[in-house]
Amino acid sequence: MGQEISLTGITTTGTPHLGNYVGAIRPAIEASRSPNTRTFYFLADYHSLIKCHDPERVNQSSMEVAAAWIALGLDTDNAIFYRQSDIPEIPELTWILTCVTAKGLMNRAHAYKAAVAENETTGANDPDKAITMGLFSYPVLMAADILMFKATQVPVGRDQVQHLEMARDIAARFNHHFGELFVLPEAVVDENTAVLAGLDGRKMSKSYNNTIPLFAPEKKLRKLIMKIKTDASPPEAPKDPATSALFEIYRAFAQPDEIEAMRRRYAEGIAWGEMKQTLFETINAILAEPRRRYAELTEAPDYVESVLCNGAERARAISAPFLKQIRRAVGIRPIGG
Ligand code: TRP
Fold first, then answer.
1. Do 4-194+300-330 and 215-296 fold alike per CATH?
2. How far is C-alpha 293 from the geometric centre of its chain's CA atoms?
3. Probe target for ligand 1 pocket from 11, 62, 206, 319, with the most ligand atoms within 8 Å of CB
4. In this predicted model, what pLDDT tens digit does every residue of 68-92 receive, in sequence order?
5. For residue 1, is pLDDT > 70?
6. How far apart are CA 336 and CA 194, in angstroms?
7. Which sign does the torsion angle of CA 80, 86, 92, 97 carry?
8. Whose CA is nearest to atom 7 of ligand 1?
9. Ligand 1: distance of its center to the CA of 124 in Å?
10. Which residue's CA is the closest to the ligand 1 atom numbered 13?
11. For domain 215-296, which architecture applies?
């Protein structure tokens, strides 16, 4: 069997938060250092256009995501780190795949179905109201991202598993018709990575507006942590770690012995204020140095840009010849060629 190829995309519509760090960035950075896997990470800026029509926000978010990943120690010599829009072969492949993708398959996409269901409940007279072709064909663009680099493994959140099934489906259909060019990718959903609770106790997510930005200044970080919702139990009352958002977040950052010690403190009764202070100190100790690097990087956008351009060059060394092969396979080639 050939080498494993791991690839994942990050949509550029928001500022990276603690949930992104624990769920996606940290594991990806660890994988970027592994000598046994070839890793590809990219800013999915074409995907972000589907959800966001604010040019400044798209641009700013690309910068923030790239700087965050670099500041946190992404090994950009080993991993190929690039911006989707720097790879013109991706939209080309998207079109070729669009032509072998069943519309019925796209009709079944959760995100599209949810948008239609929303229109139906609000009584819109058109079930497709405000749904763009971008949203509808989102899974095809994502398939192109993945198939272009022959990814074998795609680390994603659970909500993306259906998109991986679609990518496999599209790849299989293409291969059946035009020859075995594509590798069928697999979704990797890590059951052990924590899903962090946000300020209100629900999953930390941009859409709930309950996030803690990864590189909030120290004071702000402390302030936000102090805001995390707790119950009204008095300081000395024993507390249950299993139902505590604070404990859950702590667990994602602390060392195993610290976690055990904290479990005991909960049983004895720890005041929420003290727990919040400990949580702040633990997270701050981990993020202080990356935060300093992040500030430097955002002050020097040229450097970030050069890292991405270098990644794009390495990615295109793969995508350009492969697209040639794909074009030939479907009959797009010189007359008589
Ligand atoms: N759809 C993914 C998300 O919302 C982002 C993404 C775009 C992606 N292209 C990808 C993830 C290719 C994995 C592989 O999280």
1. no
2. 21
3. 11
4. 999 999 999 999 999 999 999 999 9
5. no
6. 56
7. positive
8. 9
9. 30
10. 8
11. Orthogonal Bundle (1.10)
> Helical H runs in the chain?
18-20, 26-32, 45-51, 55-71, 89-98, 103-107, 110-121, 133-148, 161-178, 218-227, 245-253, 256-268, 272-299, 301-330
What's the whole-number mean pLDDT along residues 240-263? 95
Q: How far apart are CA 31 and CA 23, in angstroms?
A: 13
pLDDT digits (tens, 9 = 90+) for 255-313: 999 999 999 999 999 999 999 999 999 999 999 999 999 999 999 999 999 999 999 99
Helical (H) or strand (E) element with 74: none
What class, spelled out in words, does domain 4-194+300-330 have in CATH?
Answer: alpha beta
Identity (one letter) of the amino acid at 146? I
Domain boundaries, the chain: 4-194+300-330, 215-296
Distance CA 122, CA 315 (A): 44
User: What's the whole-number mean pLDDT along residues 107-113?
Assistant: 96
Q: Which atom of ligand 1 is nearest to the CA of 10?
A: 5
Q: Is residue 193 over pLDDT 80?
A: no
For residue 151, the ligand 1 atom closest to its alpha carbon is 14
- Separation of CA 226 and ligand 1 centre (Å): 33
Residue 35 per-residue DSSP state: T
Decide whether any atom of ligand 1 lies within 6 Å of the 47 Cβ.
yes
Output the average pLDDT for the chain: 95
